Amino acid sequence: MSVGNPKRMTTEEANQLLKKYHEGKCTEAEKALVESSFLDYNENEAGLSKELLDQLKAEVYVALPIHKRNKLRIYGWSSAAAVLVVSILAIAHWRLEENLQLFKQAKVIEDVAPIGNQATLTYEDGESVALNGSKDGLVIKGNTMRYLDGSRIENELTSQMTQTLSTPRGGQYQVVLQDGTKVWLNAASSISYPSSFEGAKERRVSITGEVYFEVAKDRSKPFLVASKDQLIRVLGTHFNVNAYGDNGATTTTLLEGIVSVSLAGKNEGAKLLKPMQQLIAGNGRTVIRAADLELAMAWKNGVFEFRDASLKTILNEVARWYDLEVEYRGEVPNRVFNGSVSRHSNLSVLLKILSYSDIRFRIETDGSPTKKLIVEP
User: Fold this and answer.
1) Which top CATH class is 302-376?
2) How far is Cα 5 from Cα 74, in angstroms, rounded to an integer?
3) pLDDT value, residue 162
4) What are the DSSP E strand ranges found in 17-176?
5) pLDDT of res. 2
6) What's the CA gap between 367 and 4, in Å, rounded?
7) Residue 321: which of 332, 337, 334, 305 has the closest Cα?
8) What is the widest separation between alpha-carbon atoms in the chain?
9) Among 25, 163, 188, 345, which one has the highest count of C-beta atoms within 10 angstroms of its own C-beta?
């Protein structure tokens, strides 16, 4: 195919032609001009090194919808073609620079370690104290608070009626309430409670995320746990509440004792749970079934435990524990996984196991505290 000697083309005309080409509106002659102008251009004519020109060519191949990879010769190379090539090279160079900046911003990280003990104690007036990460938890006794090992809390504020203990993504912590009830918080969770239950008819707390309770017995004061969708009433028992809502449901697992669960917005009566039972409420359904205690308590025992778990279910847990954002590129594989991994392991240990199923992972950061886990089939 050939094109005669066209008149001199301005930069604006060249850019308009490139726009038409990109939108697929060029005539065959115009397409030939664009493709051959670039493909026939070499480093001597462009004044560029072969290495850089090869990079630009590769970028143009990706950037423009070229349907024919074979060279289309144009005889009578003209100033119009030269202007067009300069425009193409400018666009390609801009795209290379853009991709280079993105690459620089998205630095690949080799591994991520778990954070472990980390929590913040917030008082009723909004003031807060960052708790010592080298400690396992705190205990409330009367009007004082101490770490579990008996040491003082630095910058402790005057005790107030309501306190909220919260863990960030990647953190966990324990608190012993004033009545002796022991509470463990998983990552991205919280519990709000009064500094004392003295004089109250009930012991009421509220939670978010996932929390395990070992409730001190007191028949005169029932213990109530409120979450977004339900209210649990107990006298003295051990149970776990998962209220993350990843799948739109809240799961209550009973280890010992008896609890009653009332669902928010439901006129039906409270549901009674017996030991080794689990209540799942959400998506318009309520199900009571036999509980897999090993699976339900895995997080408290320092383990990731998966039974026929989807990739998204696993990575939801991973994201909370290692403080990551997960980005899926491409279709998520429809597979299930079984197994266990220590939560004290670096992230690479778990990802290596998952990668045996032909799934690729990459950890990136753009310089901010947030890390991103890229998942590709």
Assistant:
1) alpha beta
2) 10
3) 87
4) 107-109, 116-117, 120-123, 128-130, 137-141, 144-147, 162-166, 171-176
5) 37
6) 53
7) 305
8) 100
9) 163
